Automatic annotation (TrEMBL):
It comes from the Bacteria. Pathway: Cofactor biosynthesis; riboflavin biosynthesis. SUPFAM superfamilies: Dihydrofolate reductase-like (SSF53597). Pfam families: RibD_C (PF01872). Keywords: NADP, Oxidoreductase. Gene3D superfamilies: Dihydrofolate Reductase, subunit A. One of its GO terms (molecular function) is 5-amino-6-(5-phosphoribosylamino)uracil reductase activity. This is 5-amino-6-(5-phosphoribosylamino)uracil reductase. Coiled coil: none annotated. Residues 36-226 form the Bacterial bifunctional deaminase-reductase C-terminal domain.
């Protein structure tokens, strides 16, 4: 893995952040946050596809999955849309030696909970998200969700949060997460949720892995939904080069 940006102090581009500590430096959240900080993580093909054969794994690589795991380890909570959670087979995150070390050093909870966004509460109470987990899962839903469905999710052990009338109002949902002490928010999509976060103008960072594949077809891009009122300017924070052809980019919103 090679560092491309920021250019290393040696003015060379062959620095290799191979040690855990060095790679962690690229993905640390800001310290002492007083508001929710939303970091979105995606992998995309060269021509903008967010999935291959119905999932993102065909676009990924061991290095990309290593960074995904690192971002999870550094986050207070993992945010994901219900459709993506179902398509990708999400379940509660596991304890690992690296995860325990990273989180202990930063004073974080043992394992980050997963917060699922679903305006209708459409999660199976028997889903591994609820039944195979260490941390209490969070369901972010709306007043439109059927009462019996909310009751079933609560009975299954979820922390059900109503944030919005007809759909999930994301700024309210983020405030509810912060009220629980969950400020470092690692969002893993899908495209609809990312698009809604853009429309709400609450995205602070985008970690984008560019996979060296051309896929064509009608697969969704990484963000879909309503057009943002004003495009959000972002700046490149870091760029890593891995596996001879894969780019790992991190962008942050410009200071206002």
């Amino acid at each position: 893995m090679q560092q491309l940006w920021p250019v290393p102090e040696t003015k060379q581009v062959d620095s290799e952040p191979e040690t855990a500590d060095e790679l962690e430096r690229f993905y640390e959240y800001p310290s002492e946050l007083s508001r929710p900080w939303v970091r979105v993580n995606f992998v995309s093909s060269l021509d903008g596809a967010a999935a291959v054969n119905g999932g993102s794994r065909g676009l990924s690589s061991p290095v990309d999955r290593r960074v995904l795991s690192l971002i999870r380890d550094l986050s207070d909570v993992v945010l994901v849309g219900a459709g993506t959670a179902a398509a990708e087979g999400y379940r509660g995150l596991r304890r690992t030696e690296a995860r325990t070390r990273r989180r202990t050093e930063r004073g974080l909870g043992e394992v980050p909970p997963i917060a699922v966004v679903t305006g209708s509460g459409s999660i199976d109470p028997a889903s591994p998200l609820l039944t195979d987990t260490v941390a209490t899962p969070i369901v972010l839903t709306s007043e439109a969700a059927p009462v019996e469905r909310v009751a079933a999710l609560t009975e299954a052990g979820a922390d059900v949060v109503t944030a919005g009338r007809n759909d999930v109002h994301l700024p309210t949902a983020l405030r509810e997460l912060a009220r629980r002490g969950l400020y470092r928010i690692g969002c893993e999509g899908g495209p609809g949720l990312f698009g809604a976060l853009i429309a709400a103008d609450v995205v602070d960072e985008l970690c984008l892995t560019v996979s060296p594949l051309l896929t064509s077809g009608d697969t969704s891009r990484i963000a879909t939904g309503p057009v943002a009122g004003t495009p959000r300017d972002m700046r490149l924070l870091s760029a890593l080069y891995a596996d001879e052809s894969m780019l790992l980019l991190r962008y942050g919103r410009l200071a206002e």
